[in-house]
Structures are given as C-alpha cells and as structure tokens.
Amino acid sequence: MTTNDQGSNYTPGRYRTPDGAPSDIVIFTITSTEKKTAKKALPLRELQVLLIQRKSWPFEGQWALPGGFCKETEDMYACAKRELQEETGVTNVHMAYFNVYSQPGRDPRGWMISHAFFALVQEKWLAERRADTDAEDVRLFPVEEALQMALAFDHGVILRDALQKIREQMLTTVIAKEFLPEEFTISELYQVIQTVVPDFEERNFIRKITSTQSRKGLIEEVTDRGGQPKVSNRYSQRAAQLYRFTNLTQQLSLYS
Amino acid sequence: MTTNDQGSNYTPGRYRTPDGAPSDIVIFTITSTEKKTAKKALPLRELQVLLIQRKSWPFEGQWALPGGFCKETEDMYACAKRELQEETGVTNVHMAYFNVYSQPGRDPRGWMISHAFFALVQEKWLAERRADTDAEDVRLFPVEEALQMALAFDHGVILRDALQKIREQMLTTVIAKEFLPEEFTISELYQVIQTVVPDFEERNFIRKITSTQSRKGLIEEVTDRGGQPKVSNRYSQRAAQLYRFTNLTQQLSLYS
DNA sequence: CGAATAGTGTCTCTTAGACAATATGAA
DNA sequence: TTCATATTGTCTAAGAGACACTATTCG
Asked: Which Pfam family, just one, is annotated for this protein (chains A, B) (predicted)?
C-alpha cells in the first residue's frame, strides 16, 4: 500500500506546505427601493453582493470578495465569521460554507487554498457601514453587474458558484427567512424568492403555501394576543395577513 | 478598514501557515449477498464504508478514512481522486466534496485543514483490491458498525457528516445510479434507496416513478433493437422490466 | 371610483395513498 | 402447485393549474 500518507512514517517539515488558508465571503443582500409612482406599492427588490476594492498587489485596484487568512487558533467558520464582522460589523447572520478553491496558481502570492462562504444579510444591517464608507472601497453591486466585472483572483468563479448555490437553497430550504423580517406577507416572500430566482413563478402561490395539506406547517399565520389575525398594510390598501416561518422542516425527494 | 488581509500589504512568510492540506475520502459501497433460502430472490444489501488501519503515529493501530496530503501542483479534487485511485485502484467513479474540517488541534502532527470527499463505488470495482489485501489493513465495514468505532482524528464526525450527506443526496439527486448497473429493475432501485435511507418507504413506488406525469423522464424503459421491452429475471421468476436513468434533471422546490 | 394589492370560487385533470387482485415462470 | 417477485385495478380524497372574480381602502 503506497497510498496512505497519513499512515506512513511522518516527518514534519519534509513536505511543501500551503502558504495560507484564506476564507472568502460572498455577502448577499436584497435592497428595496420604493417605486416613485405610488406610496403604497411593492418595492423593487434587487440582489446585491458586497465587494471591496483592493489597495495593493496583487490585483491592485480590482474588486474582490472580502476575506482573510485563517489563524491557527480558529477554524474556517470562525475565520469567516470574524472577517464578516470586521468587514460589515454584522454578526449573527446566516453564513454557510459552500466550496474550496485550490487551483494551483490561483493566487500569485503562493499556494493558497481558499474556503468560500456565503452570507445572507438584511439591508438594514449594512446600512450604517454603507453610510460610513460610502464612495470608499466597499460597495454593493447588483449581482448581474458583478458577474460581468473582472474580479481579483478566481473570485468571479466563486461568485458564480455562490449564486447558483443560494438559488438552489432558496427553493429547497427556508433561507428566504434571512431576507425577511420575522413577520412577513405572502407577497414579500414571493418577491424575495423571485429576486433570487428570477425564473420562479407560481400562479397560485398563496394557496399552495397556505392551503395545502402537505405544505401546512412551513409557515403559519401570526395572530395578536387576542387571537385575531395580525395584518400589515405597508404595501397595499387592503391589509395582508402576516405569516412567520415555523421550525418544521421537510424532506424533499425525487421519489415521493 | 482593518479587515482585508488580502488587501493589506503582503509580506510573505510573515504569518504562521498550515502544515498541510490533506483530503479524506469516505468510500461507500453497497454489498449484495444472496439469501440462502432461494436462488432467485432479492439479495440482502448493506451500505459499507472502506477504512484503513493506521500503521504509525498518530493513532497507530486505529482505523481511519483513507486520504493523503495535497501537493502544490494539484487541486483538492485531483488530490482526492489520486488517493482514491491509489487506495482502491478505482477510477471514474462519482466523487464529491462535501466539507472542510479545520478544528484547531484535530491533528496532533500540526495545523492540518482537511477536505472531505465521499465516493460511491460499486462492489465489483473493489473486488480485486479486496482479494489482494484481504485480512490486511484495508477493510469494508458496515456503516452502522463504523459509526460505533473510535476512528482516528475526527474521522468519526466526518463519517457521520458524509452519511447524512449521501442520505440527503440519495433522495434529491440521482446518485442512486452510482450503485446500480446501467440497466436495472425498479426493485433494485428501490432496494438501493432503502439501503442508504432506511426510513424510505413508498408503497406505490413503481407507479410513482413510472406512471406519474411529473416524474416521467427520470427513468425510462429499456428496449432491445426490435423495440421490444427488455427484461431481467435475475431476482424473480417473473421477469421484470429494465430501466435506465435519463439525463433529465428536475428542480425540487419547497414552494411548488 | 380608480389604482394597487389581497384573497376566493370554480372547474378540470392529475396524483396520492391504500389494498386487493392478478401475472409469471422456475423449482 | 407453490412461492417470490412483478405489475395492474380500483376507489377516494387531495392537489395542481388556470383564470375569472370579489375584497379592501387610500387618494
């Protein structure tokens, strides 16, 4: 058996080792802008990604994903969380690891094996930061625009992969909740899904998600203390029922 | 902005760097053993995982996942593929990356950030190798048994995660095909799914997968050159229709 | 009342789910 | 003929999908 390096005699320092294990974080947010036409109207929503402009070699001046090197005393998740915190001041948001990028030569500084996370952040959490550093070297870009840009390193690929991943997860998990307030209307949920997955279309969305036995339990109506339905009219004249996600999960299957 | 290490002045050799980037591979296979009672009967199938016994420090004598260190000239996927090839002689099988393990202190040899893959291999591909090294330091273990063992490093956790991952993917993707011949019967498919996901039960499985409009296209009947249905009686007196997977995919969704 | 969003009625066709019943062919 | 697997019949209740229709309330 020639195979098991871990099982062979181990001589520290004998091998070439990586020059660093960075994490890169694809920070998504959905911005809402009101239509000017009417006051009460569904806002325009757009999926955006946070990029920073590099100040030094390599890729000086180019836009890149935020990130940084892992320390020996933390794991990759802690590293990404720390970088996210340092970059946006945001904590306690949904962040998930999705892939490793280890193509030889991907970083001119040396052998860097990068770990990519995506984070979903509500616009309001980014608000202060954006005010602080506006017109600085940190900016939100619409994803479609970012995809066209020549990003540093292989960050274009990472962004593309991340986008595919959250599109998939938007439909198969409840990450939609990360872009929504605790209590939301059916339209808001529908809009969020469509913002991330433009192809998504369900004509009878409200019925499928509320009145169907198999889906009952994914979300539930919110009531006030008196047990009366709680509604919102932030987007319409006619008040809309508010819902919240439950904690129930659901196993999807091709075969059932 | 204190955050972007990649954007700050870069001084090579200034930081502590990892001591290695290994890959670990969870190699799954499904073994079939015939029931002794009758010749033509559905075989007993069992999900097994390949482990190796370590010959040296650390964790000498303990069982571990196969794997090895990444070289500077290859990416992690190539590394895992090479290790799999060296370990089992197997090539061209389904292998997928699923997580990184970077807990500080997980490897007494130093700062090792490990990348975990799972591979799905048909028993027949392992047959030669097993004959070669039988009663040696490479063995298949039933997963339930392996989960009870004290594996080296954090390999117990990795195995648990891998198992959860393939259970999920067994139901949401067509990885079942990796455990099946090109042409298979409905019972075989059903058995494979149940072997990986013991809770899976569909009473009307055959109809759901063949006669349902929404699922039409996942598998298709095999016919011979004359257009006649191709059947197999390897498990039963009554011959069963053979099917194959098509290339059609299907987007699962909680919301539709 | 018109605009804009929220939500219901209704109809048809398909599917889910449960079981019973029948089919096949070697031992 | 029996046995083990393969496959179809049948019935009911529920869901999918399409689209027209009603509801609410601000301006």
From this structure: NUDIX
- The number of distinct structural domains making up chain A is 2
Q: Stretch A74-84: mean pLDDT, rounded?
A: 97
Task: Using a 7 Å cut-off to protein CB atoms, list the covered nucleotides of chain D.
Answer: 3-9, 14-19, 23-27
For residue A186, is it within any domain?
A: yes
Q: Which of B140, B172, B204 lies at the terminal end of a domain, its last residue?
A: B172
Q: B69 pairs with which residues across the strands?
A: B22
pTM: 0.93
Among B172, B187, B214, the domain-final residue is B172
* Phi-psi sector, B117: left (phi>0), alpha (psi -120 to 50), beta: beta
B158, part of any domain: yes
Asked whether the predicted pLDDT for residue B8 surpasses 50, the reply is no
Contact B188, B98 (CB under 8 A): no
- One domain for residues A47 and A124: yes
Are B116 and B87 within one domain? yes
Quote the mean pLDDT of chain A.
89
Q: Is the CB of B222 under 7 A from strand D?
A: no
Q: Half-sphere exposure of residue B118, counting CA atoms within 13 Å on the CB side?
A: 22
B126 and B217, same domain (yes or no)? no
B92 φ, ψ (degrees, to nearest 5): 60, 40
Residues B199 and B95 in one domain: no
Q: Does the nearest atom of strand D lie within 7 Å of A71's Cβ?
A: no
Residue of A nearest to B74 (CA): A104
- Reply yes or no on whether the pLDDT at B217 is more than 90: no
Alpha-carbon gap: B36 to the closest alpha carbon of chain A (Å): 31
Asked whether residue B209's C-beta has any atom of DNA/RNA strand D within 7 A, the reply is no
Q: Are residues A32 and A108 in the same domain?
A: yes
pLDDT of amino acid A214: 73
What whole-number distance in Å separates Cα of residue B217 and Cα of residue B210? 9
Task: State whether A200 and B66 contact (CB < 8 Å).
Answer: no
Question: Looking at the structure, do residues A38 and A134 belong to the same domain, yes or no?
Answer: yes
The answer to whether residue B10 sits within a structural domain is no
- Print the domain residue range for A211: 175-245
**CATH code (residue B77):** 3.90.79.10
Protein-covered nucleotides on strand C (Cβ within 7 A): 3-9, 14-19, 23-27
- Angle (nearest 5°) at CA A131 between A128 and A134: 140
Whether the per-residue pLDDT at A134 is higher than 70: the answer is no
- Same domain? For B147 and B47 the reply is yes
Characterize A84-105 residue by residue with b for buried, 16 or more Cβ atoms within 10 angstroms of its Cβ, and e for exposed. bebbbebeebebbbbbbbbbee
From chain B, the residues in CB contact with A73 under 8 A are: 104
Question: What's the CA gap between A193 and A50, in Å, rounded?
Answer: 20
Is residue A51 located within the same domain as residue A155?
Answer: yes
Distance from CA of A228 to the nearest CA of B (A): 26
Rounded, the Å distance between the CA of A187 and C1' of C17 is 33
